[in-house]
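[[Encoded backbone]]
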Amino acid sequence: MISIRKIIARFYDPLVNIHVGNVIIKSPLSHPLFHAMRGFKQFGFNTTRLAETIGQKYKDFNIIDIGANIGDTVAFFRNSVQAEVLCIEGDDFYFKILEENSKTLKGVSLFKGIVGSSSGTGNVQIKRERGTGYIEPSATPVKQMSLDDILQANPAFANAKLFKIDTDGYDSLIIKGAANYLQRAKPVVFFEYDPFLLEKNDQQYNAIFDLFRANGYRYALIYMSYGDFIAGIDIADEALLQHMLHYFAGRRGAFYGDLCVIHESDKDIFTALCDKEIAHFKKYRNYNWSPVK
């Protein structure tokens, strides 16, 4: 059944207040954030626990958020940490709302632009649909920048310890364009994994795992897109990794996952976060469970 909120938004789409945990941000009435949080109570809060866990090891860490949209992920971060965040968004409509929300979220630096695997021009455009923006082919060339080049203009974030990406199918290209940053800063990388969308832009999207391993990344936490924790794995086990990724293949975007990839030097973060996720969902679902001996 179509909600009254959705019907109204077809004709009138004002900015409304949305509570993201203890944080309030402005959102278009039509934005799916409200429905996602109402339908999936765990939606987004894995990023809150992630930021908290990183902050327990790195007291003064920074964050890069590509595909920042209206600032909703920053709002989830703000439930646990006050780290400085570089928000990158290419869509004019969402960027204006992001500017407004950044005034209350505090500690937010803004960069407007499209991030790609390299800097230059490309025939792409941002298509806005259902509260998000994704990149599609266009007849008009537009400027793109790699993250490595963006960080030259924003050196305060050159060693940001948390790297979040949500660009509806452009994530693997952005990761490939951030090789120098990954090698230098060894950030925790949190990104959307949707094979249906990724393949449209990058036939070799799974090559990012070779890039990760070549730069010392060893661990991954796997989530459903609505926040449920599935497993923490060692990505050196290629067979296990392929089995886990295969779960999301062939879904045609009906559902997908989020991956959190962690460098071998931060094994303590991986272990602590896995323990935290299991404890969280054990309490949330109210079940008795103990590890298999």
